[in-house]
Design brief:
By secondary structure, this protein is α/β, with parallel strands linked by helices. It has helices spanning 11-22, 47-56, 78-97, 118-122, 146-165, 192-199, 207-224, 242-256, 260-265, 282-288, 296-303; strands spanning 2-6, 26-31, 40-41, 61-64, 106-111, 132-134, 169-174, 226-231, 277-279.
Length: 304
């Protein structure tokens, strides 16, 4: 396939572009920032550029990973989120579905963040008596910030273009894989490395697994038609653990991984006192045929 990857200079793009190339695909990277994995410097907001790249390069598949992300909330105004996340997505979809286009599939990088309302985010401090079990059936969705709202709007555009033009689209709601510190790191007792390790229990994956999920989605898009999948490391928890997770998360983790306390103690690490949500990636395993290779058990193996 001749694949256009947007956001090719970003954290995901730098892993995804070479992974697609190893799969035998010819890749065109589009990003406003120059980089080793970017061949066209520009923005998805530029409709003429999007049209020219898709037509002149003979693009047959699109992976749309470019976005304004949550960390940009403090540095970019709302209109920038709408321009990139909504209008940019619309530009790509319209050009993909335009007469004469050779694009036959589209993979959209979305986020589990759009599933988190302020009530869920408040967790135990907000009066919750159990963690929220999150899968693709959750409704209604009430994103708590402009990032989530615009990504949800972009998802709806993807659904619409599948409805109207039969364009195969796979939406991947990825959980956290960014390398930066949490934007609330100042309020978290654990270090950044400790925090990320804990998150593999319920809301994180590696960037390598994120890239692999996109490769699988691209291969299966025409077979699937349209669907949305949560992509996150497999959680060891069950729904019946949710009450214990909000009240005493370390006790639940200790029951499942009795060796974790000693391994953590050697590094001076601790578990979160309370866990407010659990992402269930089971449907991606069953329907998409994708499961992350790295989870909390593999994190513990590394600590050994």
């Amino acid at each position: 396939m001749k694949v256009l990857v947007t956001g090719s200079s970003g954290w995901l793009g730098r892993s995804l572009v070479p992974r697609l190339a190893r799969e035998g695909h010819e890749v065109v990277g589009l990003d406003p920032e120059p980089g080793a994995t970017t061949s066209v410097v520009g923005s998805v907001v530029d409709r003429a550029l999007v049209r020219r790249v898709i037509r002149d390069e003979g693009i047959t598949a699109i992976v749309h990973a470019a976005a304004r992300h949550k960390p940009h909330i403090g540095t970019h105004d709302n209109s920038e989120f709408v321009a990139v996340n909504v209008q940019g997505t619309l530009n790509l979809l319209e050009e993909a579905a335009a007469p004469g286009s050779t694009v036959d599939r589209f993979v959209f990088t979305s986020t589990t963040s759009l599933m988190i309302s302020q009530k869920i985010r408040d967790g135990k401090a907000g009066g919750a008596d159990e963690a929220v079990w999150i899968d693709e059936t959750m409704a209604p969705l009430r994103p708590r910030n402009i990032y989530g709202v615009t990504k949800l709007a972009a998802e709806e555009l993807c659904r619409l273009f599948n409805d109207l033009h039969r364009l195969p689209v796979v939406v991947l709601r990825t959980s956290r894989f960014f390398p930066e510190e949490d934007d609330m790191a100042h309020a978290i007792a654990q270090s950044g490395e400790n925090t990320k390790a804990n998150e593999f229990l319920f809301r994180r994956l590696t960037v390598e697994d994120a890239a692999e999920a996109h490769v699988v989605a691209l291969a299966k898009a025409t077979e699937i038609g349209f669907d949305t999948f949560i992509v996150s490391a497999p959680t060891p928890f069950r729904r019946e653990d949710c009450r214990g997770l909000i009240a005493d998360a370390p006790a639940v983790v200790d029951r499942l991984f009795p060796e974790y306390r000693a391994l953590y103690a050697k590094r001076g690490w601790t578990m979160f006192d309370s866990i407010d949500r659990v992402y269930d990636a089971g449907r991606a395993a069953r329907v998409l045929g994708f499961t992350c290779r790295t989870g909390f058990r593999e994190v513990l193996e590394t600590l050994r």
